[in-house]
């Protein structure tokens, strides 16, 4: 690390900072408390808030880079308005991004839950962090961030932000098999996105609601919501949304015993999934296709689907695929 490394070594020898991992350093608690009180007493408010803004934007853009490499389900939110350039960390691959998340997520969470300024950034960081953590951490660890994010979105007057975080709440309920509560949060999100006239969010909320309804046995309503989501995705040119919805809808028809329709929908989704490189969803689609062909008694076609290579994807859970997010 050059000069920075030499300075850090000197601080460690002086017991002002401590090494907490390879290339990672932290404050001693008393020194941190003193630094906080000194900054509050001597640094102007505008200067302190500028530092917080830089930290939030650094985390926001670094989380976006990590999410792109770890396959997180990040909602493509509208871009910041009037944002200045930002220095964000980059990663060589998903493994490096995952290691950064494991090391840093608690620091990011601390910033999100402790700052009182820049609510327009706080909700974005909270949403991004919950999206990259939900596959790897317990919901109890990231749900407090969602609550903080919802309050920040309300303070900032941004219904899209609240809607996005309502979808994160729905995802937490879905993970706990609390499908009624999941559907309720999706409905709240849908209302917020419609009020804000943001079709990307509206489609995501309809998809989440369709999944909840499917799990609750309300299959006809589930199909209606999937179809409404597909219509929006096609209208805005969201090929990923169309592909995922077709894959989910095929699963519903398979469970209804409508195997020909399941095969038709899966066959439509597979080329799109390969085109956009969504390997996990492609694996689910091939499993759907194999199950439908098996139920039709077409065992050779079922074997061909189930043994077809699709990169390094692995199904997220054993057994018959269910509609997923």
Characterization of this structure:
The protein contains 14 helices and two strands; from the N terminus they run αββααααααααααααα. With about 325 residues, it is mainly alpha-helical. β1 (about 15-20) and β2 form a beta hairpin. α3 runs parallel beside α5 and α7 runs antiparallel to α8. The longest helix has 26 residues, at about 45-70. It is elongated. The model is unreliable at about 310-320 (pLDDT under 50).
Order of helices and strands: HEEHHHHHHHHHHHHH
Class by alpha and beta content: mainly alpha
Q: Strand arrangement, largest sheet?
A: 1-2
Mean pLDDT: 88
Helices, by number, come to: 14
Number of strands: 2
Blueprint (SSEs and pairs):
Layout: H1 3-13, E1 17-21, E2 24-27, H2 29-42, H3 45-70, H4 94-114, H5 119-133, H6 139-156, H7 159-175, H8 179-196, H9 199-215, H10 219-236, H11 239-255, H12 259-276, H13 279-295, H14 299-306
Antiparallel strand pairs: 1-2
Helix pairs in contact: 3-4, 3-5, 4-5, 5-6, 5-7, 6-7, 7-8, 7-9, 8-9, 9-10, 9-11, 10-11, 11-12, 11-13, 12-13, 13-14
């Amino acid at each position: 690390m050059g000069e920075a490394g030499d300075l850090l070594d000197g601080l460690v020898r002086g017991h002002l900072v401590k090494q907490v991992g390879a290339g990672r350093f932290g404050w001693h608690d008393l020194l941190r408390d003193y630094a906080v009180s000194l900054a509050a007493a001597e640094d102007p408010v505008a200067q302190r808030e500028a530092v917080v803004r830089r930290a939030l934007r650094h985390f926001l853009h670094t989380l976006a880079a990590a999410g792109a490499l770890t396959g997180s389900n990040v909602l493509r939110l509208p871009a910041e308005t009037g944002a200045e350039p930002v220095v964000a960390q980059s990663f060589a691959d998903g493994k490096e991004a995952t290691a950064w998340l494991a090391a840093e997520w608690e620091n990011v969470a601390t910033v999100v839950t402790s700052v009182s300024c820049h609510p327009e950034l706080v909700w974005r960081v909270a949403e991004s962090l919950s999206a990259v953590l939900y596959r790897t951490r317990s919901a109890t660890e990231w749900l407090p961030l969602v609550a903080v994010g919802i309050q920040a979105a309300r303070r900032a007057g941004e219904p899209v932000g609240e809607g996005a975080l309502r979808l994160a709440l729905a995802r937490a309920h879905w993970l706990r098999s609390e499908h009624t509560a999941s559907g309720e949060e999706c409905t709240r999100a849908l209302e917020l996105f419609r009020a804000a006239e943001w079709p990307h969010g509206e489609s995501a909320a309809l998809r989440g609601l369709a999944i909840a309804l499917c799990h609750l046995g309300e299959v006809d309503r589930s199909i209606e919501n999937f179809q409404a989501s597909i219509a929006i995705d096609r209208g805005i040119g969201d090929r990923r949304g169309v592909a995922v919805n077709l894959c989910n809808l095929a699963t519903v028809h398979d469970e209804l015993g409508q195997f020909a329709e399941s095969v038709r929908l899966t066959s439509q989704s597979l080329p799109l999934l390969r085109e956009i490189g969504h390997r996990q969803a492609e694996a689910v689609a091939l499993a759907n296709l194999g199950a439908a062909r098996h139920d039709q008694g077409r065992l050779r076609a079922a074997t061909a689907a189930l043994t077809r290579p699709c990169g390094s994807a692995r199904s997220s859970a054993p057994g018959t695929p269910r509609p997923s997010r």
